[in-house]
Amino acid sequence: MAIEVRIPTILRQYTDGQKAVEGNGNTLAELFADLETRHAGIRARLIDEANGAQLRRFVNVYLNDEDVRFLDGIDTKLSDGDNVTILPAVAGGSPAAKARPAGMA
pTM for the complete prediction? Predict the structure, then answer.
């Protein structure tokens, strides 16, 4: 069973710069374990062992464009040909920053 996994820039150091890799597994947990066999260190960036082996708080994972947190999380079932996208959560801005008038960069 082949599943395409899209890798964000920040994690490409684990995939030798590849934007997408293939993996296998019947669940996300199995897929991440499979990826770890070829891309050592990537699983630890995705899974929080101290929190019951769940997804890290600031990592978003989508199965065919649907957030897995609204499915079964790490136990979400996968099928051949699925696409998994890993995205780091993005936060930013500053409470001290002032809004710029429209049209100013």
Answer: 0.82
Contact 16, 9 (CB under 8 A): no
Q: What confidence tens digit (pLDDT) does each residue in 76-99 have?
A: 999 999 999 999 887 666 666 566
Hey, what amino acid is at 80?
D
- In the chain, what are the helix, strand and coil shares in percent, each to the nearest 5? 30, 25, 45
Tell me how far apart the terminal alpha carbons of the chain are, to the nearest angstrom.
47
Taking the mean position of all CA atoms in its chain, how far away is CA 32?
Answer: 10
As a whole number of angstroms, the distance between CA 56 and CA 88 comes to 10
Distance CA(95)–CA(5), nearest Å, equals 35
Please state the separation of Cα 67 from the chain's center in Å.
10
Other Cβ atoms less than 10 A from the Cβ of 102: the count is 5
pLDDT tens-digit map of 18-29: 999 999 999 999
3-state class of 84 per DSSP?
A: strand
